[in-house]
Every structure is written in structure tokens, then in C-alpha cells.
Amino acid sequence: MNKIGFNVLAWSAVISDELKPVVERLKTIGYDGVEFFVGAPGDAAYKWMGDYTKELDLGVTTVMVVGKDENPISSEQPVRSKALDRIKWAVDRAHDLNSPILCGPFHSAHAHFAKRAPEDQEYQWGAEVLRAAGEYAAQANITLALEALNRFECYLCNTMEQLLRLVKTVDLPNVRAMFDTHHGNIEEKNFSSAISTIAPVLAHVHISENDRGTPGDGQVRFDDAFSSLANIQYKGWLTIEAFSRNDPDFANSIGVWREYSKPWDIAEKGLHFIREMCGKHGL
């Protein structure tokens, strides 16, 4: 059976003592694991949280982004070098957290645009950085699961077809892909063809509603998503990614200007919804 996780970005992008009761309650509710954002400085926090979740017998996955000064597809070599250093740092923090997966759109700078369509050279530059990062991650048995984002946050990879192209260009067994129902709802014609396209390299899935609130309460066609995942016999994590304004700095950085649903409502109702969908579609 697929494991179900919850991304604690609904509370905070920073690992601190304040997340301890959140993690504990997610375990009590019935989640198999939690997902942390890797970005804030303070290496020690990642290590003690990794030890803490291990004591609770909770699995961990991680997510990260990169900015314009550490852009893997920059035309400037020093910037691409910074990108590789940043991803390597995140791999180390994922290792501290005992996370076998580091996911996210770190193939290119988040919300940074060239005001044109992506070019072949950018896919090559990105692949070079990600290949080196993947080789580094392999030493810690970590899979890099790259994410396609919607057109308002990214221009390199909006669809599973584009993402598959990039992953194939990298050509490493531990550099793979993830699927997010929020972004797929915007960019793909349908979930069936998108998930079928990315199936050979799919390593992680985010369950996220169109408004980033409680899964099942919005417009995402989750029956199509779950049946498509069942058809490819997907066995990885199903992790809820929902946002709030609990962490204003993070919320401002991703354009979250209002509350969609209360975090604990999302967690409790979302878990029930995923279990219901898994049962219905045989996942």
C-alpha cells in the first residue's frame, strides 16, 4: 500500500521546536510520514529533526527550490556552479533528515523568467548540473525527484512531456520525476496521459487541490488522478502539499495571500480522502 505523507509547509518553512507537536499530531492522526522544506540555514536543526522523526517511526521526504542567483539553467557558469553547490547542500540536509527523496522544481530558478520559451541549451545546462547533483546524491542513496510547475512559476518544465525530456537528458537512475495534481490541473490536458507519460521515471506524488486547500474540496479530478496512478501500479508516496499564511515570509514568496483551509482540517480530511480514493481505485 502507498504511504501517505503531509508537507509541514502548511505551518512553517523553517524547522524548529514549534514543529515538534505538529509532527507528533500528524503521526497520531495516522500519517506514515512528513515532508520538510529544505532551505533555511542552521544545519543542526535538520539533524535533530531527523533523529526525532526516526524515534516517532515516521518516514520523511524533502522538497527544495532554487533562486535566480543559483539557477541551473543560467547562461553564466558561476551561477550554475552555485546551483550545484546549493543542491548538494540540500542533499546533505535531506540525508540528515533520513529522507530518501529530495523533490521540487530545482531544475531552474523558481518564478524567474527569460521572457521567451525554453531553449535546447537550457535543457542541456540544467541536465549537466542535475547529473553532477545526482551523482553526489547517489552516494547517500537519495533520489532527486524533479517537479514540473505551472506557467506562472516556471517556464522550463510545465508538463510531464517537458519534464521527461529533462530527466532522460540527465540519464541517471536516481534522477527521476514527481507529479503534482495542482500543477497538472493547470497544465495537462488530462491526468491519464500525463501520468502515463511520466510513469517510467515517476518517484513521488503531491496530492494538492486547485486552490491549495483540502484535497477533494475543489476542482481537481482526483478520480482520474488516482485511477491513472493505479493503472501504472504506482507504489510511492502520496503526500499532501497545501499552503497557508502561517509562515508569512514563505507565503509571500509563493503568492499565498489568503487562507484556503485550516491546516488541521486539511490534514484530517485530506488523510480520509486519500484513503478513500486509494480504496476506491485499488492503490
UniProtKB/TrEMBL annotation:
User: Pfam families from the entry?
Assistant: AP_endonuc_2
Q: Which UniProt keywords apply?
A: Isomerase
- Keyword Isomerase, does the record have it? yes
- Which InterPro entries does this chain map to? Sugar_Epim/Isomerase, Xyl_isomerase-like_sf, Xyl_isomerase-like_TIM-brl
Q: Name one GO molecular function term.
A: isomerase activity
Q: Which PANTHER family match?
A: 3-DEHYDRO-D-GULOSIDE 4-EPIMERASE-RELATED (PTHR43489:SF7), ISOMERASE (PTHR43489)
Output this protein's name. Answer: Isomerase
